[in-house]
Amino acid sequence: MAIFLQAWHSQPGSDAGMTEKHILTIECKRDEAYMRLMAILGWPEILEETVMSLDRVVMMFAGFMVLLSVLLTTFVSPLFVWFTVFIGVNMIQSSITGFCPAAAFFRKLGFERGTAF
Q1: Residues 51-73: pLDDT tens digits?
Q2: Are 26 and 6 in contact, with CB atoms under 8 Å apart?
């Protein structure tokens, strides 16, 4: 499958308004084409692969649950504030003991271990 990538970027040492156009035709998967383009344009920091570790998944899940509980408290019933309290107590308990039920669940789903869980 041919992928055509087009990018504009400023050349070092050129006028601020001057840009150079790169058009590439690459026979590869889309992600590989993106990685090659970033390497050609000289943006190696973008090439670092971000792995969704267990720590990140648990933090994202906790944040989602807090936002959900706030929305439920606001729009459904004020009693959902106890859901927010439960989430907060569970986060405090996890930080002290190192045991997190959500981390155990996501570990069984196959997420790579992080530094905290």
Answers
A1: 678 898 999 999 999 999 999 99
A2: no
Contact (CB, 8 A) for 33 and 5: yes
Tens of pLDDT, residues 2-12: 444 444 444 55
Please report where in the chains the tokens 């039920």 appear, as a residue.
101
What is the distance between the alpha carbons of residues 7 and 21, in angstroms, rounded to a whole number?
Answer: 6
> pTM to 2 decimals?
0.56
Size (the chain), residues: 117
| Contact call for residues 41 and 6 (beta carbons, < 8 A) | no
| Other Cβ atoms within 10 Å of 31 Cβ, number | 9
